[in-house]
Known about the structure:
The chain has 390 residues and is of the alpha/beta class. The protein contains 16 helices and 10 strands. The termini are far apart.
Amino acid sequence: MSALPTHQLFDPRDPVFVVHEGGKLAVHATSELRDAADLSLLYTPGVADVSRAIAVDPSLADVYTSRRNTVAVVSDGTAVLGLGAVGPLAAMPVMEGKAVLFKHFADVDAVPVCMETGTVEEIVEAVVRIAPTYGGINLEDISAPRCFEIERRLKERLTIPVFHDDQHGTAIVALAALLGAVRVVEKRLGELTVVVAGAGAAGVAVTSILLAAGVGDVIVTDSRGVLGPDRADEAGLPVHKADLVRDTNSGGVTGTIGEALEGADVLIGVSGGTVAERDLMRMAPRAIIFALANPDPEVHPSVARRFAEVVATGRSDFPNQINNVLAFPGIFRGALDSGARAITEEMKLAAAHAIASLTPHPTAEQIVPSVFDERVAPAVAAAVARHAPR
């Protein structure tokens, strides 16, 4: 059977397509071009003087070009939202949307850079070669485990901030939400047992930041069950999962997610799977459930509320939306303004605490501020800048 004509796949009158028509971005000039005098300053011959100065002192590029306020949003289209490997063209609307959020919330100019997928080395080389144009690199929607290696290598080779938002943005906001949630349920971070369902990009980063923040124990599960001591010698276990086996699950739990949830205080879902009610019943009293898969949470909020006192999702149509937009605009604003050469673990922790501080009296229905709270990006930027390495 032949494929349907493109026009039959969607209704172009649908508002979601109308708002995207022609793309969501455009270029505008910051200096007026009114006459020959302006032309001689903005372009030749005047621009040559600026180029000569930058050639002698490259740091002047941050003063006399747009570089310092411009971020590349880089994707190869291999893990776009919940759609999977849809490719760079289909990734473009998402990266444009990300750029809109950068501009709206933090006045950062962001440019989508969607490239054909290739080897890790090819992607790293491509980004390194275009890096002189940008003040920061935001990696987006790149599949695991390649995303870990790409980020690591870029951090080693570049002297500008590199940030994989699917990992660290999710982790920062999840920690911010947890800081609010534990106050509601009157528990302490150091006493918690947290189960992270999902060992991909977000799961790895969430686990890392929770441990850095002082959470008592984290147990990670993947599609095969708990990452416990029985998995240590598993043939073909990826490096990032082997690291999780080594660094988590201090009690040596094995088996299914049900075993992991026995007496657990918190479930954080970043897997896109489904957690059964019979397993949720095993959680501790006054539990916390963050079901962050989009658009379908691992546990529907109406179900989660039967087993947990505090429930959050990644969706905007339920209370307690855990959304990366609370983090990444302010993180890059602070990093760019401070001239940071990297985004460190201390900066991520500071960002999480800054977000949490904006909800001084959390309730079960509000543990983080709204994404439209205008205080968020400035607060995160200030916190990040204070902890930025120079």
